[in-house]
Amino acid sequence: IYLGEDNSEFIPKCRTCRRQAREQSGEADHHEGMSSDDELTPTEGDEFQKSKDNVLEDSRKVFEDVHADFCDIRKILLKFQEWKEKFPDSYCDAYISFCLPKLLNPLIRVQLISWNPLEQNLAELEEMPWFRAIEEFSDAENIPESK
After folding, report:
1. How far apart are CA 103 and CA 80, in angstroms?
2. What percentage of the chain exceeds 70 in pLDDT?
3. What stretches of the chain adopt beta strand conformation (E)?
4. What pairs with residue 10 in β-bridges?
5. Which domain holds residue 138?
6. Is there a contact between 77 and 133 (Cβ–Cβ < 8 Å)?
7. Cβ distance 73 to 129 under 8 Å?
8. Structure confidence at residue 14 (pLDDT)
9. Residues 17-61: pLDDT tens digits?
């Protein structure tokens, strides 16, 4: 709803509708300035938590039937490091640096399912095992052959 020439008098229609609905229902727990979009009913909160728990439980089962050498990022990267050391020409010809992100993506995504950037800071992300493994692998690739 536009109330005049001054933009400060602009009130979004959806906000007005929600306010009127709260007034009619007699809800007194809303605080002006807080988003009513963020307010979940207890039922919605329980449903969301159940859904979140189901997703986390399913994510734990994704790699349960995979051999340990192929579901651990550190072990996978060690295999690539061995390949690079034993057969450098073949490793270079395979463009491994372009393939690794696609190869590791599913493993990393499963580990990030429970990570919430709004609740945790970037430092915690950098401490995750997969991040450390990739960082060590990248450092090992940048070491000259003479070392």
Report:
1. 12
2. 76
3. none
4. 2
5. 66-142
6. yes
7. yes
8. 66
9. 777 877 787 765 666 666 655 666 788 888 988 998 999 898 888
